[in-house]
Design a protein that fits this description.
With 209 residues, the chain is α/β, with parallel strands linked by helices. The chain has one domain: Vaccinia Virus protein VP39 (Rossmann fold), CATH 3.40.50.150. Helices cover 29% and strands 28% of the residues. The strands form two sheets. Strands 5-4-3-6-7-8-9 form a seven-stranded mixed beta sheet. A two-stranded antiparallel ribbon has the order 1-2. A hairpin with a 2-residue loop joins β8 and β9.
């Protein structure tokens, strides 16, 4: 269930759902998603579903990972990306495989340590990790060419907008009871905002644990 043929089927499903960026499809076909889930769930890792990863968190559905990544790189692959919510490290791996330098923040220490171990095993080394509250971002390393969050705030944190470079793109799920993917572009005169797919993400919480 973790064979290349199984991965091919996942990529075919993503294409059928409208994912068309060849770079996104290529890296998602190459990355072993089963490495990022518990061994007992490995047989389901190439289904187009979210799966639990412990601590009340999930690895996102492959379609959502592909969709968010496609939106993020629509103007070209960004050099630096701030990721809010390392989680299991799968989205991180996709970004690194695309050639991004990733700055990834996680507020749950056990999840972060597991993700670091997985990414090191796969030799994904273009990642800087930080154990912190993601809503405040990483101002010391700003500005970022792109920002992606894997948890949903009720509104866009201003700190993250401030850390986005002019010309940069942020992809973030927004909302509490009802959520949508939001694309934010920072221009010389302010920000532009566009809403996309309905989604379900864990809420963006403050503090660390």
């Amino acid at each position: 269930m973790t064979s290349l043929r199984t991965r091919h089927r996942l990529i075919r499903r993503l294409r059928e759902q409208g994912i068309s960026d060849p770079q996104v499809l290529s890296v998602m076909e190459q990355i072993p998603r089963h490495i990022f889930v518990e061994e007992a769930l490995a047989h389901r890792s190439y289904e187009d579903i979210a799966l639990p990863i412990g601590h009340g968190q999930t690895i996102s559905q492959p379609y959502i990972v592909a969709r968010m990544t496609e939106l993020l790189i629509a103007d070209g692959v960004p050099h630096t990306v701030l990721e809010i919510g390392t989680g299991c490290g799968y989205q991180t791996a996709v970004l690194v495989a695309l050639g991004c330098q990733v700055y990834s923040i996680e507020r749950i220490r056990p999840l972060q340590l597991e993700a670091i171990e997985r990414l090191n095993t796969l030799h994904f080394d273009r990642v800087n990790f930080r154990y912190a509250d993601g809503a405040v971002g990483w101002p010391e390393r700003a500005p970022f060419d792109a920002i992606i969050t894997t948890a949903a705030p009720s509104q866009v944190p201003q700190a993250l907008v401030n850390e986005l470079a002019v010309g940069g793109r942020m992809v973030i799920p927004l909302g509490l009871d009802e959520q949508q993917l939001c694309l934010i572009r920072r221009t010389t005169t302010g920000i532009e905002q566009q809403m996309f797919d309905a989604v379900i993400f864990v809420p963006m919480l403050s503090g660390i644990r």
